[in-house]
Every structure is written in C-alpha cells, then in structure tokens.
Task: inverse folding
C-alpha cells in the first residue's frame, strides 16, 4: 500500500513537472518538460551519444576508484599497524586530507596536461581519503584477543593481516569505499568539464553552452542513474562478502 | 611525545628541501615545480595586496550561504520525515533516486538558470549540503526518547512549540554532526564550482594562476586553500565543543 503511494508520489512529481513545463511557468529554455527530456535521451541513444560517453566516464571513475582503494587500504593498514609509519606520515596526511580534491586539478593539469591520466590522478587523490580513514579505523579496532591468539600461534604478520585483520576491517573498509565511489563520480564529471574529455560531464556542459536544455536534463538523469547503479552494485558485493558476519551471529 | 612530533615533520621538511634544491639546480622543470622560496614570496605578496583575502571571502561567503540554506531545508525535511514513517515511505524512494545525482552535474544547469556569479554556486552547494543534514536529522529525530514526545502529546503542546522545545533540542547534538559534514562539503563544492567555471573565489584564482603560467602563485594558492580548509575545520570543532556538547549528555532539559 505504502509502496503504491511511493510510486504515486514519484509519478505525481513527474506529472507536475510536465504540467508546469507545458504551462511555461518557468521559461522552457531551462525547464524542459519530461517528454522533451525523454525524447532527447532517446535521440542521444540513436546518435550513439549515450553509451560511449557513459562508458568513458564510468571507466575513468572506476580506474581512479580502484587505485584509491588499493592505496587507501595498504596505507591505512600500514598506518594502523605500525607506530613508526604513523609518526612519520600522520601530520603530512592530516594536512592533505582537508584539501578539497578539486584544488589539485590546476597542478595536475600543469604536470599531466588535459589528459585521461590527469583525470584518473585527481579522482584517485580525492577518493583516497575515505578508504584510508575506513581502513585505518578497521585495522585499529581489530579485537585484541584475536591479535593475542595469532601471536600465541606464531602467525606470520602477513598471514595475520590477510586472515584476521583484513576480514575484521572489511566492514569499515566498505563504508569508506562507498563514500569514495560517490566522490569518484563527482571528480570524473569535474575533470571532464575542466579538461574537455569525452564523457557525460563534458556532454552536459556542451548541452548547456548551446542551450539544449532537454539534453542537459537527460545527461543529469543519466549521471544520477550511473551513481545509483554503481552504489547498488557495491552494496550487493558488500552483502556477499560480509555474509559470514550475519551467519556467525 | 615531543620526538614523535619532530618525526612527523621530517618527511615534509625533507621533501621541501629536496624540492628547493632540485628547482635551484634545475633538475625540476621550473614551469611546473617552482621553488618553495618563490612560492612563499608569491603567497606573501598575494596576501599583502589583498587578492587572496578577497578570494577567500568570496568562497567562504558563498559556501556559508549555501550551507545555511541547505541546512534549513535539510532539518525541516528531516524532522518531517523523521516524525512520520508514512511520509518517509511515500517520498523516501523519490529522494533516494535524486540523491546519487552528483552535485557537480548541476553546474551547467545552475549556470543556465542564473549565469555566472554567487547564485549559481549557491544552488549547487545547497543541493550538495542538503543530504548529509537531512539523513542525520532523520536518524536523530528517530532516536529521540519516545517518552519525551508522549509527554509533549499529553501536555497538548502545540506542534510548533513541540518542535522548538522537545524535538530540536533533543536532536540537536546529532544534527550538528550532519551540519559539520555539510560544512566540509560546502567548501569543497564551492572551490570545485569555481575551478570548473565560476569566475570568483579561490578556485578561480588557482586556475587563473595556472593558466597565466605563474605556477608559484598557483602553489601558494593551493597551500592557502589547504590552510583555509584546515582552519575552517578547527573552527567547527571548537564550536561543536563549546556550544553543542552540552546537548549531548543532558538531552532536552
């Protein structure tokens, strides 16, 4: 019943949008109706302007995110498990962390030019911090009894990290990785706009410059769908990988 | 403790020293990695002629305005949703569908509506800030001791004063957490919008410095942005400790 109401509400919002646009309450220059937006979406697909830019955006986002996740987990584990590493690196990282990720775009452009490499670097930098923090917390809060057990059994430290610390840190890592994914999408869009790389972000900027508002709306919707699906995929992976946690309880 | 602090400084100091030497000897390309000493001079000059402070004021003004609007919307909507499960079931799914839209995707739209300037930036910031505040408010309102609300019902408090006297104070400490997250987001989004296209503030200053081949100024600006972000965060922590902690333990008194 409530589900029906939820669908009805969403439908009502779209319907109101259609009525408002048809009545030209707001200038159609920046408020196209849903039907025009949908037509633009279909036209984009037919021209081949939908999947290719979407793949380009998703791929860059994915590379940067994977890079950030790897570095973040390794660095987080190192900082959490080793006192000296923490002492040497923490202040530097504390300075870098609050830096808005997009602020490194200008230097990144100076170094790498307007390239995909630049985009991936910026994405990886921005997406690093949530994973790093998550991994740090996760590896710090390993049950001390487990660590004692492992020490008593003379477990090698690599085996300890792989078999004990990593599984117990995984929920925190996943929390970080999910935030990172959202940041990666944001930065993928930003770097496209800034560096004129093919992709959805660049396309909506072009649509705006030539006042094709239906295409602009269609692009924003597609970006939202991309964000929704990548997040869903991650949630599902998380549920799979962490099934043992619910089983043991 | 003292020693640990020095160890933390070791890597940055060595890096900066190597950078300076490398730039002086000429192994580092001067058009990207200008000398740390030149960066310090450029930063000092930009600070003295007021350009840096003007840009900082522009960025923070916009970020705070966006944060304020986003917070009001987030709290209002969050309280409504938090108090009424039915409302959440009805409009929740729609909000969940809109939420993953990356805020920066709205930059072209905001530009189309308002043109360059403060308003377009604020629009993007509001969209980005609403979510953390909204989500935290919903869970904060859910977490209010149900007996408090029952008491309010029994006393037949009118809805508005119930909000003001029971719901808001009880949920405030946790809402403050959401606002803090939102504040960080606001600053980041503000700088981002400026870097992408809005001709004002710190982000634009950096892009202009880079494009006019003044890397030393760009690096100085980057350091300044980092410093401003850090200082802003410190300020929020202080506010949180000074004025908001008392709600934490006492609840609604």
Result:
């Amino acid at each position: 019943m409530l589900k029906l109401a939820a669908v009805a509400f969403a439908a009502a919002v779209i319907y109101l949008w259609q009525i408002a646009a048809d009545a030209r309450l707001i200038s159609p220059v920046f408020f196209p109706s849903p039907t025009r937006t949908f037509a633009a979406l279909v036209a984009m697909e037919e021209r081949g302007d939908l999947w290719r830019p979407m793949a380009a955006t998703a791929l860059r986002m994915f590379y940067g995110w994977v890079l950030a996740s790897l570095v973040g987990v390794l660095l987080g584990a190192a900082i959490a498990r080793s006192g000296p590493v923490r002492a040497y690196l923490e202040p530097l990282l504390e300075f870098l962390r609050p830096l808005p990720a997009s602020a490194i775009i200008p230097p990144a452009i100076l170094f790498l030019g307007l390239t995909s490499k630049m985009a991936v670097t910026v994405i990886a930098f921005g997406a690093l911090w949530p994973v790093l923090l998550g991994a740090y917390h996760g590896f710090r809060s390993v049950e001390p009894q487990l660590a004692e057990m492992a020490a008593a059994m003379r477990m090698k430290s690599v085996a300890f990290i792989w078999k004990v610390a990593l599984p117990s840190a995984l929920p925190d890592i996943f929390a970080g990785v999910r935030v990172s994914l959202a940041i990666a999408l944001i930065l993928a869009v930003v770097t496209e706009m800034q560096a004129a790389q093919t992709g959805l972000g660049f396309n909506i900027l072009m649509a705006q410059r030539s006042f094709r508002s239906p295409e602009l709306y269609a692009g924003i919707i597609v970006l939202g769908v991309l964000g929704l699906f990548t997040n869903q995929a991650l949630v599902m992976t998380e549920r799979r990988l962490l099934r043992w946690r619910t089983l043991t309880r | 403790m003292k020693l640990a602090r020095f160890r933390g400084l070791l890597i940055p100091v060595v890096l900066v020293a190597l950078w300076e030497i490398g730039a002086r000897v000429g192994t580092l390309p001067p058009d990207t990695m200008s000398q740390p000493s030149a960066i310090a001079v450029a930063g000092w000059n930009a600070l003295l002629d007021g350009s840096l402070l003007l840009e900082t004021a522009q960025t923070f003004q916009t970020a705070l305005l966006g944060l304020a609007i986003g917070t009001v919307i987030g709290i209002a909507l969050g309280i409504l949703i938090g108090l009424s499960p039915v409302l959440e079931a009805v409009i929740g799914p729609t909000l969940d569908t809109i939420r993953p839209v990356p805020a920066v995707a709205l930059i072209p739209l905001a530009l189309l509506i308002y043109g360059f300037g403060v308003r377009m930036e604020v629009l993007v910031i509001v969209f980005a800030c609403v979510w953390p505040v909204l989500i935290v408010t919903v869970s904060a309102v859910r977490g209010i001791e149900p007996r408090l609300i029952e008491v309010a019902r029994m006393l037949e408090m009118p809805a508005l004063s119930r909000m003001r006297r029971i719901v808001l104070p009880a949920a405030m400490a946790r809402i403050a957490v959401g606002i803090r997250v939102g504040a960080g987001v606001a600053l980041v989004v503000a700088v981002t919008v400026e870097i992408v296209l809005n001709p004002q503030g710190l982000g634009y200053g950096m892009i202009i410095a880079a494009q006019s081949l003044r890397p030393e100024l760009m690096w100085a600006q980057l350091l300044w942005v980092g410093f401003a972000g850090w200082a802003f965060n410190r300020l929020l922590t202080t506010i949180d400790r000074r004025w908001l902690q008392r709600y934490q333990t006492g609840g609604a008194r």
Notes: Residues 157-195 of chain A form the longest helix (39 residues). Chain A has two domains: 1-28, 32-248. Chain A touches chain B through 57 residues (CB under 8 Å). Chain A has a mean pLDDT of 87.
